[in-house]
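Why show two proteins at once? Because comparison is the fastest way to build intuition. When a single record is shown, students tend to memorize it. When two are placed side by side, the eye starts asking what differs. So, the first record is below.
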Amino acid sequence: MFFAAWIPIVLITRTEATVDHELSRLGTVESIVERGTYRLEQSQFRSTIDRIAYRGHFYSHQPPLLSTLEAPVFWFLSSAGLRFARDVPFDLTYFLFTACTSGVALSGVVVILYAILRRMRVTAGMGFMAAYALTFGTWLLPYGLVVDNHIVSGFLLAGLAWLLFEVEFDGSTASRCFLVGLVLGLLTAIEVLPAISFVPLTILYLLAKAPGRSRTTFLAAFVGLTLPLALHAALNIGQTGDLLPGGFHSELFVYEGSKFDSSTLSGNMNHPTISEFIDYSSRALFVEKGYFSFSPILLAGLIAGVFGWRLWAFARPVYFVLYFGSLLSLVASLMMTNNFGGFASGFRHATYLAPAFLLMLVPIFAAKSVLARATSWMLLMVSAASIMMLFLVTVPRPWWPYKFPPHKTVIEEWYEYFPVVAQIHWRIGGVKDEFGRPRSP
């Protein structure tokens, strides 16, 4: 199941870093492995604008824990003699690193969704199709092809959902509660906003479970939650002076060449009036960025969460955590941003919430009525249409504005959609060198 999802993802994974968000993370990973530091001054990616200045040194403005956890992937690649290459069309190390981090996370979402569907007694055939179609019909698809935190957070949220179902149906043992806390802590340290949404709701859920009120199980959950947050604190304090990541510190962007200030950074209330907030939200969700418009299956999940309360009777507490945690996170991200996450496709700050919205649809696929089966097939067709749209418009350039309709057909620009296949083809044919640069005649 995993490789059936991962191999197609690898074929369309990007082969070069193109934006500062990626350069910032790659620079941190490179510095950790090659110099044993988080500083960017000596990195080939030091020119990224996604950086802060603290006590005379530059650091990525992203939370440091994810780069730390991904560093072993680059260490393994570097032990084979590979190194990141800047400003080349084909960076083999970047490609492999992306496939083994973001690609694995995207495949993991497919596997977890399939496991949950099967647990809810959806047939193997329908579960297989739904896991692929629903996942790839969301913004998880383009962000599973580049280096970013959103797809990893989406995988962690899917994992949290699976663990909560385990607790709900099989009991809140110490080991399960520890894993719930651990995954929740990782999600919070990487994405930040779950601290005000999924963390309190999950704690309330565990406290509401009778065994969850025991000292052992609750202590296990607390230890699991604290471990990644403590590691985040140990890393982050040395880079910002407190627990908040660099992106929340406008004062750390005061240096020559900085492109950010308090009016453009996340972590600030950026909408002085309700009307401005409503306008920004509509542009992020339906018009300019089209979070729901390009992926209507997410809107279907949002609606199903409202009207499907009775359908979730068998696991209503888990539904409560996932649904309201996602709503709180979505509203918070809309309130604390004002630039949609830059030029990137979609409202990328809400990418990781996709698994929770998709899980609102599980009871429809699990139901046996004629209406439910017809609705299930309709949802699959909607997802298939979204996959085609996202593939055509966002896959070639996930970090840049849409080109719609595409200037050329997929056949004419096939190399934009399957870059690694194109690079191998050109290299074998002697047209380009190992970095994807044209060979001299």
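Second record. Ask yourself what differs from the first in the token line.
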Amino acid sequence: MIEPWLYTNYLPHINKNRFIFKFFNITMMSKLENGSIPWPIIGSATLLAFTMFIPEFSIPPMMHLIKEELGLTHTQTSLFYTIPVLMIAIVAVPAGLVTDRIGIRKSAGIGAILISLGSILRSTAADPSSLLAFTFIYGVGLGWVLPSLPKMVSGWASRDKAIVFTGIYSVGIYAGPALALSLTIPIVFPITNTIQGTFFIWSIPSVVATILWWALVKDPPHEDFAGNSMISGRATLLHVIKNRSLWLLSLFNFLYAFFYYNWTGWAPALLMQKGATASLAGLITSITLWVGIPTVFLIPRLSQRIGLRKPFLWLPAIILAISSLSALYVDLSLSWILMVSVGIADSVLLITVLTLPIELTSHHKEVGVASGLVFSIGHFGGLIGPLIGGRILDVTGTFYLSLIVLTCVAAVAVVIASRLPETGPGVLRK
């Protein structure tokens, strides 16, 4: 039978017409039985995912401007890109525990407020210390939101369809950063010709997403938060910590984030060394994200049809290793091919990594803290990667050694992926 909350929240006028009532009743019953997520929920999640990374990915195209205006080294400048990654690593586990206790709406809503606040405050920064402080606030919000999204999927969708709905909101994860990378220098920055003005303009989408999240999103009707005491929270954490497969996935995510944040953070600078202008470098780098949009739509369905998950970890990791090695020799005219290959591999890895905490846990109440563990350990790699890349660039003046390091990191990720258990529906069919 259809849940009562649907009558009051999503079908307020159905008694006016019996035919409409019958149509919606059957439709919504079918959707809930099939593990679907109501459109206000998945739509708000997609919008939040779209906006939450924009403030971070507006940094790489402006790296050279920030460096010159604030008188910093490459390593110091990379901090404004990597501090949010550090905060994800620190905040993700406690945020996951809180999400499991207070629910998706409140937890992600708090994170969304912090994202908006930090983003707006960055537009007032006049020196490196204030910009760093406001970036910390933004990063806390980012780390608070991330574990809530897999938790949302596990609360609304059936486990076998989790990867499909993860793919829907993941479109936002790629579209937002892609716009930030491609539009920051040629369109947004010239509006004010200041770094602070650019930060302000890019904060507006986050504010809109925050308002809509609090207005439209509700917790799953079957979720019981009253029973999630501090004691049960500790028990859940201990149970998750004992899960060997989650630690392997976390290690894999560490290597993946090391590669991804290093590549996207320094790709514009790499392309500029190959002869690109700042605008062209940002546009070419954004291809990595643009190709992810159709990929996150198609790959979940392909993974479901095949019934496997592991090939969608080790095969993309091989592609990343080949791409980073090839970047040593590919000139600017062919660099877009590299961005396409890295973009496809990255989006396949992201969608799979986001889904696996749901499939590797025994109960949906563990998904928040399990996702927090995977994001926390993984994003320490995202913190270390760009810092190492910046240090190598400061010392050597080239990206040669960085690309060799990325090749080795991707190769190790292939080995880790081979050790993970297979969780796809094809295993259950046998």
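One difference worth noting in the second protein: The CA atoms of residues 126 and 196 lie 8 Å apart.
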